[in-house]
Structures are given as C-alpha cells and as structure tokens.
Fold this protein.
Amino acid sequence: MKRILSTSLVAALAMAGSGLTPRGGPSDYPAHANAGQLTVAAAAISADQAKKILGAGIDQAGYLVFEVALYPEPGSEAAVSLGDFTLSLGADGSSMRAAEPDVVAAAVVPYPAIHLPEAPGKVHVSTETDIGYASGGYGRQGGVYTTQGVAVSNYPDQSPQPPPNTASKDLTRDQIERSLAAKRLPTGRITHSVAGYLYFPKPSGHSRKDGFHLSWFGETAQARMTVPPAK
C-alpha cells in the first residue's frame, strides 16, 4: 500500500532542504576547530558569490553568508540547531545568531507597510436605508416599512487597496526563501558529515578584514574559530 504524504508535510520536507555536500575534510575550509567528538569548519562567502549562488542580494539586505560543515567522529552523534551558532566581528563586537531563511527573505523583499485608517478630520457622509416588517397592533396596520437616515463617520468609506505588484513580490520572496532553505545547514541529530549555509545579520565591530569570530555551542562541547574574510 502506498503512503500518500499530505501537502503540508511535503512542503515541510522541501523547506528542510539537504544543505551542501561537505568538502573532503575540515582542513579544506579556511577555519576549523574541534569540539569533543565533532569538528566544526567554516568559510565566508563573498557578497558576489552569495548573489550568484542564492539568486538574491543578501549582503545589501544586511546579512552575511557562511558555509559551515560539521564532521562527527565515526560512531558519534551530535544535536545541531541554528541557535548553537553565533557570529561577532572584532574583539568587542556584538554577537549575532543565525537567522531563519524566511527572516532573510523578508529582508531582501520586505513586506508592504500596513497603512492605518485615516486620523479623525475627514468626515465621510453616507445614506443608510433600513427595510423591515412590522406586525399590526392596536390601531396600527402591519406591513413592510422602510426608513432612511444619514451616517457620519471619521473612517474612510472604502477599504485600503493593496499596494501594486504585491503578488509578484510575494512570489519573489517565496522563491528566495526556498533557495535559502534548500542550501541551509541541516539541523537535528547528525551521525555523519553535513554542510550548508548559515545567514547572519551583519554584526557591529571592526572592519571585515579583521576576520569573523564564529562560535558553536554544542550539548557537551564548544568550538570557536576566526574565519578570514572571503577573497
């Protein structure tokens, strides 16, 4: 009997992505550090490379891209989540956590601003007609009746119209999110080498030429390394 996956589950699996194929070993990355039975390796991706690979101006939206790989020792396993990683720039720079693909996509293609109703001042006048039925009573004759009146409101008489090209922007944002998610570092419990991209908000601090401080905080061990800027 064939199993049929629900649409939501299929979408969830597609969004999880499979990341990238890890390089031959940790030494194939510009930076790497040991953390117990796991080795973490990383490389910075330039703005031009990121745009070609991901199809979006991540750098212009305020994000940096890093290729990160995890190499557990044979027979060992480790739990991995985005919250395990932080990035800082310079000795006194603030630390930033990796962002989810949907957050980055929304920075690249922002959602339209929400316009609140007009402030009081402009008065809108409209007519109202009420139609009903009155039953007959003492000295009265039943039947259908109509009444008319005037309504006064400070609110606009029409709902705000959506901004132009909203559907096109939504489609572009979704495409960017899928691209980012498909290549993101896989998370969960791992027993073999995995690799993928992580997306960090640009941290404050020194110039990028000083390198980036990338940290991983695992369940039982930690790894810290300085990742040189992309060439």
